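Bit of a strange request maybe. I'm writing a small parser for structure token strings and I need a real example to test against, not something I typed by hand. Could someone generate the tokens for this chain?
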Amino acid sequence: MNDQAVQRTPWWLGVTLWVVAVVLMLTAAVYQRLTGPTYRLRGEFTLAGETYRYRLVRSAYSTADTLVTIPTPSTEVIGNLHYKRYPTDDDFTVLPLEVHGEHLGASLPAQPPAGKLEYYLTLDTPAGSLTIPDNESGSVIIRFKGPTPLYVLLPHVFMMFFAVLIGMRAGLAALFAPAGVDKLSWITLVLVTVGGLFLGPIVQKTAFGEYWTGFPFGFDLTDNKTLIMWLVWVVACAVLLKYKTRLYVRRAAVVGAAVVMVIVYLIPHSLRGSQLDYSQLDEGVPATEAIESGR
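Reply from user aminoacidic:
Good idea to test on real output. This should exercise your parser:
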């Protein structure tokens, strides 16, 4: 029995599986938004019985200085921004915090693409000194990147998230209602191919100067995650082509690809990405040639 001979999926089951797939996709999107080394670091500090929440930037464009701010507890509070190039043995540069509306802040100097700065803030208050983040959390690492045109970035993001949606729906179909699983699997493969292997390298090139820094050229985890997702769906679609009559084999291949996709998305975004080697930069190597991957 092949996929076309499978009983038609009841409409209520089809709708239910789409709802579950959407929930899983949105959960993955939120998880990716809140994890990884590039999203704002959330925290809070307490002063005079009041709690103040802050979000410290960890990703910025290399085209302009980046303002770092925290809420202003009162006019009696002053402070400083401490930063240095990362990872280096440089001494920290200290900048005084200035008032920006209801916040205190200072600007970090722009770095070349893939350049990183390590920074933290200190406050002098009537109740004593505060370090933000606290000493247990350590300093904040911010990475700079080149701007990516929206006409490239938006299709890339759109296709990758819809690849997750359709891929999860294909996995659910293989488990509970296999009618249409071939079509869903091939759509997933097309989305990962175009969004990940075609547009992804263009995004990487505009942001960090290299088209591909994953296997076999480097250890960029985002590139390698994309490669793994593409490979498992290539295998799944190849199985669908080869085993026309073995429904259990076909279903197992699609479920396996969907499970791998979920596992890959549990890995925070932008880990082990491109990083500027300041020691090479100091030796006169151009910034575009001093970038390493897998850091």
